[in-house]
Amino acid sequence: MVFWCQVVFGFGMQLILLLAVGLVLGQSAQTLASEAKYNYFRLPTALRPQKYDLKVTTHLDNPKDLRFEATVKILIEVLENTKNITLHAKNLTIAEDDIILKDTQGKKDNCVQSTEINTHHDFYVLNTCQELEAGSVYELTIPFASELNNQLEGYYRSSYKDPVTKRKRWLSITQFEPASARAAFPCFDEPNYKAPFIVTLGYHKNYTGLSNMPVKKITPNDQFPDYVWCEFEESVPMSTYLLAYSVNDFSHKPSTLPNSALFRTWARPNAIDQCDYAAEFGPKVLQYYEQLFGIKFPLPKIDQIAVPDFSAGAMENWGLVTYREIALLYSASYSSLADKQRVASVVAHELAHQWFGNLVTMKWWTDLWLNEGFATYVASLGVENINPEWRSMEQESLGNMLTIFRKDALESSHPISRPIEEVAEIAESFDQISYQKGSTVLRMMHMFLGEESFRFGLQQYLQKYSYKNAEQDNLWESLTQAAHKYRALPKSYDIKTIMDSWTLQTGYPVINVTRNYESNSAKLTQERYLLNTQIARAQRLGCWWIPLSYTTQGEQDFNNTAPKAWMECGKEGEIYPKTIQDLPGRDEWVIFNTQLSTLYKVNYDERNWRLLIETLTTGEFQRIHVLNRAQLIDDALYLAWTGDQNYEIAMRLLEYLQREREYLPWKSAFENLKRVGRIVRQTPNFEYFKRYMQKLITPIYLHLSGLNDTFSAIPEQDQVLLKTMVGNWACQYDVEDCVAVARKYYTQWQEEEKPDEKNPVPLNLRSIVYCTSIKHGNDADWQFLWARYVNSNVAAEKRTILTSLGCSREVWVLQRYLEMTYDSKDAIRKQDSMWAFQAVAFNEVGFHLAKTYFMDNVQAIYKFYHPITKDMSRLLLPFSEQVINQSDFDKFRNFVTINRPSLKGLEQALQQTLETMLTNVQWKERNYIQLSRSIQELL
């Protein structure tokens, strides 16, 4: 490929000259160019890109001047006559005098007469000398330059320390989703503008260049000594946010399967030994997806790379998937089973995107969930297929449900499919609703459609929209055809009607089941479930199409998740109650929602609850499916929280846990008790709650042999997770010998001659041992662990240590830790700062310190995270869980009102934080005395 660059600058001078003659598109741009009149949030539709040629020279030699200069050549098809070209560009220095616009069909060359900008929407408008005519194709060449920023978006810099020389090694990497390709090159930066890309990277010959496609050729670079040009093959048509490139000195591990795409896993040289697991797992899951979707992976190669500084967990760039180190690297000597499962889950998620998101892309960010919900759900199928012994499908399904039952019970939640009219709103959509709720409703659909029609519908959808853009209605159409073909739904039903009730409205329902024990029937009604009890029942609007699966004490058939009936809605959203006939008599229970197949809560009449409690506490409780045991715990505790059920029922149901030996019901219980505990620990009755928790946990703690290292004798993987979780709670509540054993392990480690090389603490117990020892230790214990953090080469181990360091109960130690977290000279990377902050803020001693620190330093913290405010929003979570008094709520609400400028981009998170605080205040006023009484009766 030939690139046109009118002016060849001397080494080191190009950026300076561009700054002198060009236009800086950034904060100060208004002073340099006229403001554009065009102010709609979407690009005009008169033009479409046909192809991009992007040539980028990256300079990593001088740490004080890390930068790039580039030229982009775009072939533009004119669909309607127009006198301007509107692109996106942000924080780029454009050499306007050297912009070239020419007609490719040999007509008279055009030119750019003037430029305008719109800083709000990042538009760069080129007004042309002559009108661009419909049907023509023009070639636009733009030279530009910029620094390699440190903001973890666009084209940015990252680094790692060379273990031999102890010097920083620099690399460059991209992160374009959702709207940061514009910060790397002028482009049509919307997902609907797909085009092929030819990327050519210029860099020093000691580095490696990577991009979406394989290398086509490497040639000498005549502009800079010892530099090369690396040209990549032309890509398939794709959205700008999926383009990726990097210049680095990494090593890689090949792991290509026969008859498959070239597969490589990259990391810094001193971490390449941690790539083995991802390199082995990745090609397997890719092959599984090829079978599931009936479409081969469309590119000739795929690289996955672990980036030291990375804002997201990972990013699905087509053919060059980028990851945070913790999401890709796994060390058998330092990472726990939970760490390993996270790597598998993230790799499976990103590779699922190669079809859902990359091959077929949403038309606009409204349907972001089509990418994220699908990748989340399909990833769980992939992990289950490759590692069935983990039982991860059940774990993920319950985990997603528990998250959504909490998040979507807030009035300030939002629909899965939501309108987007600002770039800032796109970032807010990358949340638990798009991912976990999206995944949950897809699982629901999979279960009511059955395997054949679900798979056939997906394959039809992917084939029809390959290399194109789609919206959710297109998917519903393909799945409806499949459902009718395989008779999974009556002809009068269609997927759009059913699924719109789940994707276009906020929230989820609670079904009230009132049995008539004389007529052996039950009346079912639905309403939206909300945590805020100040909202009147009449305002709890919404109607959901609900597939009703259920079983009885006589049947106990939990394997049948197909709906036996449906709750329907009217055309205007009217709620139709449902009557279920042929139920058993008064001595048998009924359970709705087998295997938690659908996102709803169930409130039974009191008799049915008591029949369930009887089976759980004295009967054959294991015959109730493990997911439904977890469901009963969660429903009972939530309904008690909002006053829809009394705590006596909930606490009596929890009593059965003394018999329970499975992971999922305990996870459900602990998730709920954690929230209650964070409120009660601030009250005089905490002593009763603590004794109650000790009574609850002791049997399972002893059954699992406490904190003794019995892991090699545990055959079931989820029992490893159970032992870890129970150990964590046991040490928090001083159960048996938990604290003493943890301290003993820690002392043994401290006595090791080379503690960075030899660690006697069992892998899966390290988070418990570290936190407990810091909590009950002194500053010397803290400093020992900090030294291990600084010296560690494993991201998972570093995060475990980072969160454990926040467990101290010394005010001055915690205050020092907060200061260190936001000191750029310290060893904590920006992306990891929130883990340190959250650890302090969730600690009962650290909570008030962290809240004061946040409120006193909000401007500095905002500046620290800007422009990626997502991480800052996560600092709010500990406050939402622990503010329990009206006066503290009022203070925080006033703080938010006064500090709006320093909380820009956090509007959704702040709304949800304030609403959660309010529900805590309500709970304490309504339930605190009742709960305390119930607990004292059980002791």
From TrEMBL:
Q: Which InterPro entries match?
A: Aminopeptidase_N-like_N (IPR045357), Aminopeptidase_N-like_N_sf (IPR042097), ERAP1-like_C_dom (IPR024571), M1_APN-typ (IPR034016), Peptidase_M1 (IPR001930), Peptidase_M1_aminopeptidases (IPR050344), Peptidase_M1_dom (IPR014782), Peptidase_M4/M1_CTD_sf (IPR027268)
Q: Give the subcellular location.
A: Cell membrane; Membrane
Stretches assigned to the ERAP1-like C-terminal domain: 589-917
* Cofactor(s) named in the record: Zn(2+)
Q: Does the keyword Cell cycle apply?
A: no
How does the protein associate with the membrane? Lipid-anchor; GPI-anchor; Single-pass membrane protein
**Pfam families recorded for this chain?**
ERAP1_C, Peptidase_M1, Peptidase_M1_N
Give the signal peptide range: 1-26
User: Residue ranges of the Peptidase M1 membrane alanine aminopeptidase domain?
Assistant: 277-502
- The broad enzyme category this protein falls into is hydrolase
Q: Name one GO cellular component term.
A: side of membrane
Per UniProt, Zn(2+) binds at 349, 353, 372
Cited CDD domains: M1_APN-Q_like
| Gene Ontology molecular function terms on file | alanyl aminopeptidase activity; metalloaminopeptidase activity; peptide binding; zinc ion binding
Enzyme Commission code = 3.4.11.-
Q: Which UniProt keywords apply?
A: Aminopeptidase, Cell membrane, Disulfide bond, Glycoprotein, GPI-anchor, Hydrolase, Lipoprotein, Membrane, Metal-binding, Metalloprotease, Protease, Signal, Transmembrane, Transmembrane helix, Zinc
> What protein am I looking at?
Aminopeptidase
- Specify the species: Drosophila willistoni (Fruit fly)
